[in-house]
Amino acid sequence: MSDRTTAVPNDLNAFWMPFTANRQFKKNPRMFVAAKDMHYTTANGRQVLDGTAGLWCCNAGHARPKITEAVSKQVGELDYAPAFQMGHPKAFELANRLIDIAPEGMEHVFYTNSGSESVETALKLALAYHRARGEGSRTRLIGRERGYHGVNFGGISVGGIVKNRMHFGSLLTGVDHLPHTHDLEHNAFTRGRPTYGAHLADELERICALHDPSTIAAVIVEPLAGSTGVLIPPIDYLARLRKICDKHGILLIFDEVITGFGRLGKPFAAQRFDVLPDMITTAKGLTNGVIPMGAVLTTGAIHDAFMDGPENMIELFHGYTYSGNPVASAAGLATLETYREEGLLERAAEMASYWEDAAHSLKGLPHVIDIRNLGLIAGIELEPIEGHPTKRAFEAFLRCYDKGVLIRTTGDIIALSPPLIIEKHHIDELFGTLADVLKDLP
Ligand code: PXG
């Protein structure tokens, strides 16, 4: 045995887990070993109902045959093809299928491998687009408080989660932030979209006045902010942002890494809210979480601004080794086919009212200070334990897991986003278990 071999063969120490309390987890690990449809199987053989579609990504549920088969077949047929100056048919086919379901006006697809990379790509495209059109002074990027745009430098710069930013230096320069739209005082326990808060979009006018619009390249927002606890956009808020962007020649980017692929009852939130951005960032549900893949959808105008100069020149100096990877493309095609065959991109709309009633049935339980919902998403906000933020919700997470239900927490907010194949009896089980847990929570 080499002295480089780990002391204990299956020691948990080597794997530095992402966004995890590593020491706590490794003392009492929670391991999944299998998954099918709505359920995970734990290492000791328990079934756990998936209330979170993995991490908001397994929109068609788990181990769906069409996707499994497509991936297996593709690995044997064409495992990898160079992504630069070479192509393979499935990457083109998938781009077309994406445009088929995308909002009218989205015409091109740039592949990445994650939501974070989609965000970096969209921000870079915004800067380069203005430069290509002779407006190189537009360099500022505007995000929003409580926004989550992944973990790379661009994304954390425009993002608005303090802990994701504060440890990592000075970030990108020339970034400003809109205020978030979360307002319990006006909107607590709203079903669907809050009526209060559209005026917060007008803060963009203030930012424009401060910096001058000619210095601003793009505004990036999640149409519905997921990671910071399900913040539903007030009625008319997104349309107002669009209007102000148009007035000042600023690009609008919707980060649809969570809202894309049916979460709100339409393929994209842009369609649900009837607001067309200039770019849409995606990942997660694009391949049902099976193979890492992301994509940025752009309008024709964005793409065409680059298609200038000599034809033998590379138009955009950006891309990844795995952009449009064949196995990921095959997974994406099979995923879209599964969504289409089963009507999953519309299913959240069909289930929304049952889901909404079930979520709001938790009103009145101990510690519950807000419940909010849209499509197949719900957020349940708990009063934090004084001096111990996050502890109460995390305890709810642990207790639900012990009772066979997977939920997700962020701060003291419980976020639910099940696979779109969820049935009414699963909804009953999910909220029933959660209600039992909340009744006894310290
Ligand atoms: N943008 C948005 C809107 C996201 O929600 C990313 C970008 C980054 O994607 P990648 O693929 O780089 O992780 C995300 C990711 C949660 C949770 O429980 C949310 C995400 C990831 C993990 C957990 O809220 N969102």
Write structural notes for this entry.
This protein is of the alpha/beta class and 442 residues long. The protein folds into 2 domains: 127 residues, Aspartate Aminotransferase, domain 1 (Alpha-Beta Complex), CATH 3.90.1150; 276 residues, Type I PLP-dependent aspartate aminotransferase-like (Major domain) (Aspartate Aminotransferase, domain 2, 3-Layer(aba) Sandwich). Helix content is 37%, strand content 16%. The strands form 3 sheets. Strands 4-10-9-8-7-5-6 form a 7-stranded mixed sheet, sandwiched between helices. Strands 1-2-3-13 form a 4-stranded mixed sheet. Strand 2 and strand 3 form a beta hairpin. Helix 3 runs antiparallel to helix 13 and helix 14 packs parallel to helix 16. The chain is globular, with a radius of gyration of 22 Å. The termini are far apart. 47% of the residues are buried. Bound molecules: 3-[O-phosphonopyridoxyl]--amino-benzoic acid. 3-[O-phosphonopyridoxyl]--amino-benzoic acid binds next to helix 2, helix 5 and strand 14. This is Aspartate aminotransferase family protein. InterPro entries: Aminotrans_3, Aminotrans_3_PPA_site, PyrdxlP-dep_Trfase, PyrdxlP-dep_Trfase_major, PyrdxlP-dep_Trfase_small. Keywords: Aminotransferase, Pyridoxal phosphate, Transferase.
